[in-house]
Amino acid sequence: MTFVGRILVFVIMICALVFLGISTVVFTTATNWKEATAKEQKKVQDLQTKNRDATAAIDAAKKDLAAAKSTHEAAKKELDNRIAALETDTTRLNGELTQSRTALEVAQQNAKTALDEATARKQETDVLREQKSAVEKQANEYKIRQTELNDQIRILTRERDVAKKNNEDLRERVAKFSQLLRKNGLSDDISLVKGIESPPTVHGKVLRVDAQNRTLEISIGSDDGLVPGHQLHLFRKKPSAQYLVEVTIIKTDPDQAVARVIGKTVNGIKIQEGDDVSSTLRSQL
Length: 285
Prior knowledge:
By secondary structure, the chain is of the alpha+beta class. The chain contains 2 helices and 6 strands, in the order H-H-E-E-E-E-E-E. The chain has a domain at 199-278: Thrombin, subunit H (Beta Barrel), CATH 2.40.10.410.
């Protein structure tokens, strides 16, 4: 029996007890038993009517309850279906989440690998840039050296041409001097001539110095009595008197000569344009 049925039975029992009470009061207090009986019968009929109505209401309630139960079962089934669908979706989403996490971990690992590779490439690029800078610097030095060598080649070419001309002139002069010496009954053997190893008393200035600080041009030459092989002293007067090194004449022109440094300068001092050169140091320093 359902809860609603129990309530209806309880209501019927209460109504019966009320009717019994009323009947008892009526029979004990009324003087007109027939009229009272009629009234009580009418009440009984009313109660029966109410009972039938209540029974009909109970039946209707049972039907409604059955319909509600059916509706509830349908709703429950629908909810169960939805719960099953949601569980399926949850399982699928969990699987997708797991895949996404795995993909994310792989992506993070790939990103870390790419970052490490980028860092390594950057370091390699920095090294290459340094190497490039060093190569460019070396190339610039080579260009400067090439320019200096080209200048030296031009100087040496000019010196060669001058030396060739001087050699031809000297040959001609030597031939004339030899002819003149023999004509006057003298020997033309140069080894018999004394004093040529000593240079005349001369004083000049340094005009130019090469990049290696080994070869220099001076302002005195063959017109001053210099010949290749003469050795001169190189010094500097300012800011204080200072001896530098000895040089030997390797080529002469009428008004200038080319000299080469003998050994090393004192304390490694660089020769400069304007330094003094002389065949004697007396009264110079």
